[in-house]
Write a structure and sequence with these properties.
Distance between the termini: 21 Å
Number of strands: 18
Strand order of the largest sheet: 3-4-5-2-1-8-9-13-14
Pfam families: Glyco_trans_1_4, Glyco_transf_5
Shape: globular
CATH topology of the largest domain: Rossmann fold
Number of domains: 2
Oligomer: single chain
CATH class of the largest domain: Alpha Beta
InterPro entries: GS/SS, Starch_synth_cat_dom
Radius of gyration: 24 Å
CATH superfamily of the largest domain: Glycogen Phosphorylase B
Largest sheet: 9 strands, mixed
Helix content: 25-40%
GO molecular function: alpha-1,4-glucan glucosyltransferase (UDP-glucose donor) activity
Pathway: Glycan biosynthesis; starch biosynthesis
Protein name: Starch synthase catalytic domain-containing protein
Strand content: 15-25%
Length: about 500
Amino acid sequence: MLAAQQKAAQKAAMASAMQAAPRVATGRSVVASRTMSMGGARPMNAPAVAQRAAVRRATRVLVSAIANGATAPVEKTSNPMNIVFVSAEVAPWSKTGGLGDVVGGLPIELAKRGHKVITIAPRYDQYSDCWDTSVVVNVDGESVRFFHAIKSGVHRVFIDHPWFLAKVWGKTGSKLYGNRSGSDYIDNHKRFTMFCKAAIESVRALPFGPGEDCVFVANDWHSALIPLIIKDVYQPRGQFKNAKVAYCIHNIAFQGRFWPESFKDMQLPQSTMSKLGFIDGYSKVFDEKNPLDDDEKPSDSWSGPFNKLNWMKAGILAADKVLTVSPNYASEIGSGPDKGVELDSIIRMAGGAEGIVNGMDVTEWNPKTDKYVPVKYDRNSVFEGKAAAKAALQAEAGLPVDPTAPLFGYIGRLEEQKGVDILLSALPKISNAQVIILGTGKAKYEQLVKSMATKNPNFKGVVKFSAPMAHQITAGADFILVPSRFEPCGLIQLHAMQYGTFY
């Protein structure tokens, strides 16, 4: 991933640059630098100024090297760990957004550093590169199998059960959780309870598993029961005594709220209700029986109280460490009920969240090697490469091939959070430019996007999940549109910068 690669290369570059820099008193100069950067009044001393100048020179060399395809040396850890990522998505096998990208790319970088890394996700499709391990475990009366692949030094494990494969079958994007946005599968609480329990059992049942001494990294509401089950079920029995659980929030807007009646299907001890219990003011849980209408928005007014279960709340309270995808987002979600979506007090109770900026997989997102880009390019050939990519994108999308027309691209969910309603309302006011939108989401926005081309030949909508098209838009567009009302981090912007596309 870029962030990790940059840090490793930067360390090596800095070490070289520091040899030419004046020697400084280690602690004092660092404190002076930090004070100045945070707006303090105390000036940096001369050695610290020289050190920072050397760092800047080293950084410029580093950025130039990475931009031209140089690879950074990987520093091996002196303390290798057994790390188990549990996630409902893992790219490229399954993905609706940034969650899949992170769980696809970050484990590879950790494995390079000497850690033993496993990812565990549902098997939604007949993945051709994954094999049946023949290992079967019983989870609450259900027989669960495990499929397996090793990619780039990472063990990829897939939970096999009809609740995933038969329901979703195929690269269906947002349909991993429901047939459409705002209409979750009625049995999601059963599906993902089984997923969490099977994921925990897999580390003991699989021959390549790390056993009980490991660090679990649970992600978003779908795997929020991992810390709860480890801490409140297994450890009181004397099992997984040394296991630790980090819980990472990728988007706090999706919390896994269910009616209390679903608790009996989860087959957890009554003691877990102290962490799962939640009260909100909403009279609905949006699922197949009570879907969110296209024109309906959840009310901001309190009409409760209504007792619910909140999986994310339980994950936060049970985890050893709460993480999120950027320092700014970590601050936001604990700041108040609006940005914390009613979990701000729970986050503060847990001691806050630590924000670690997302990174991108520079192996997948690299215009110099991208298999979906017709003419490979780097910083020295960006104008020629992007011109070819733009023409290819226009032709592929059915837009007029015109190098002089500004081309705007949007890649993301078709929902209010992403600001797609703002974008669509602005389209009639756009002239002398081309727009292409790629994504899935709410039915009303999908229909509007599909109808774009009928209203203006310079507009094109693609309502599906398409990795090739996402790469083609990132490379071929002049501008990437990010009209989001809020973004936990935003990988789209990182991709755009990597490909020389404005956002």
